[in-house]
Every structure is written in C-alpha cells, then in structure tokens.
Amino acid sequence: MNNHLGVYETHIKVLQEEIAALQCQKEKNDRELTIHIGGSMKDALLSMAGRETGAKTGNSLRDIRAHLTAEIKELEEDLVRQTKMNGIVLTNCSVKTLEKNSRKMVQQYRLAGHCSLLGFQVEIEVTDVQEDAAVVTTITVLNIIMDTTECKEFGKFVSGVEENRDLLLFFRTLRRFSDRCDDRHRTFQHFQKLYPGVVSLPGGCRSEIMLIQSPKLPGCSLTLSWTIEVSSGGEVTPRLDLVSKMPEQALQFDSRMAIENAPDAFQCLLRVLGVEASIQALIQSVSV
C-alpha cells in the first residue's frame, strides 16, 4: 500500500511541476484576446483545467461542454439584446497586454464596428494600478478613426473626445448622430424617387446636399443643405439651409423679392410644417 502511495505522490509531484512550467510560459506570452467570464462558464473552464471550484459542474467532459454551450448561448443572446438597444455592432475586438507587474498592468483594446452605416475603429489603452487595497483603472490613450466621409461633421467632436478620453460620450453621441444621418438619407431618397426629374443628390445617396431644379425654368435651382452639428458635449442638432440660384433676367422680374427672401421663408416653413412637409412644399413650388 505504501508503495502505491509513493508512486501516486511521485506522479502528483511531476504533474505539479508541469503545471507550474505551463503557467510560467503563459505569463510570458501576450494575450491577444481577453474574455471576462463568470458563473457557470468560469466553473466549467476551471474544471477543464482540473481545479476545484465548489460549483456542481460535473466531472465529465460532456457536462463541461454542456455548461460552456449554455453560457455561450446566453452571452450571444445578451449581445443581440445590447445591439438592438444601442444600435452599435462590434465586428472585431482584441486585447493585448503591453505591461504587467505586481503593481501595474497596461492593456491595449482594439474595437471595430459600425452604427447603422457609420463604421468606426477605436484603440484604447487602459492602465490598472494597485493602490493599497484598491485597483485604480484609467483610460490613458484613446484614438478613434471613423471610416466614412460622411463623418466630417463628426470630426471636431471626435477630436474633443480623444483629448478628454471620454469613451462613453463617444458611443452615446454616435448613436444619436447616426440616427440623424439616417433621417436625412431616408428623406432625401424619398423625394429623389418621388420627383426624379426635379431632385438630384450631387454627393450621392448619403449626400448632405439636395439640388432642386425646375424642368420648365432652365438655370433656376434651389440648393438645400442639411448638415448635422455636434457640440463638444454631444448635443446633436440638424441644420437645414436653402440657397437659391436664378438667372439675372429672372431676378429683374422678381418685384416682390420672393427669390431673395426664399431662405428666410423656408425657415418659417420648417418651424410651422416640419422638415418633410417643408421640402415637399419647396419642390412643388418649383415643379409647377
């Protein structure tokens, strides 16, 4: 019996040495992906490594796989709910440890995704510092790249966010800005399809400019500019302006100065009728 115990103790010692060597090797390698897990998924992974967790995860590989499958399904469902709520879809995520010691750890997060048709890439450096019994976490670097030309209206705001390292403000404002861009796109597309001979979008389907030209009055046109302003605090405000272009001969017959006063009259229409009804009235006045 004692001989058997001695053999078992020798095997256990060898296994412990192998585990210690593997753990040391793991610490030397940078982690490309970090997943924060908990509950049954954590218990299952620890069980696979042969560690006791106190949870009833079972000892068989089949039980472990079942726990992992259930946890992954739950995480996927939660991700779908979050996407529906905030409209932000992450397509890529990676984490790399840049520095780690007993007191400090620096990790670099790289995220890529989109909100509606607005693509983005975010690079964040997060520093965790151990101070007495607490860990202080701060964002030390924040870089944001927007993938679409539409976001020139968003550029100044992004610069301020990077300077203040306010990631939450960026994502919260991105959703509102994206919604207003989609409103503009849908409205312009609607009128272009409704009046194809009158309305055109010089900058393409995501243009901020709508050109309204009269088929019966060559040289006469109205240019509607729909920009989206973003304040440093994340307030998103659409701004619509009208510019009229008429030949000199037509201006001579405009005794009531209707052409000159058209921009101010359009602003009054916006306040009374709203955006779509005002644009409708504008197009109809030119196409009659």
Categorize the overall geometry.
elongated
Give the number of DSSP strands. Answer: 8
Unreliable stretches: 29-42, 50-57
**Helix/strand class:** alpha+beta
Radius of gyration: 31 Å
The helix count comes to: 8
In terms of quaternary structure, what is this? single chain
Order of helices and strands: HHHEEEEHHEEEEHHH
Distance between termini?
Answer: 106 Å
Question: Which strand order do you get reading across the main beta sheet?
Answer: 1-2-3-4
Task: State the share of residues found in helices, binned by percent.
Answer: 40-55%
**Beta-strand content estimate:** 25-35%
Mean pLDDT: 78
**For the report, how would you describe the main beta sheet?**
4 strands, antiparallel
Detailed description of the structure:
This protein is α+β, with helices and mostly antiparallel strands. Among the domains are: 35-86; 177-287. Helix content is 45%, strand content 27%. It contains eight helices and eight strands. It has helices at 2-28, 39-48, 61-86, 155-164, 167-194, 248-252, 262-273, 275-287, and strands spanning 88-100, 104-115, 118-131, 134-146, 199-200, 209-213, 221-230, 236-245. The strands form two sheets. The chain has a four-stranded antiparallel β-sheet with strand order 1-2-3-4. Strand 7 and strand 8 form a beta hairpin. Helix 2 (39-48) runs antiparallel to helix 3 (61-86). The longest helix has 28 residues, at 167-194. The chain is elongated. The N and C termini lie far apart (106 Å). The relative contact order is 0.06. Mean pLDDT is 78; it is low at 29-42 and 50-57.
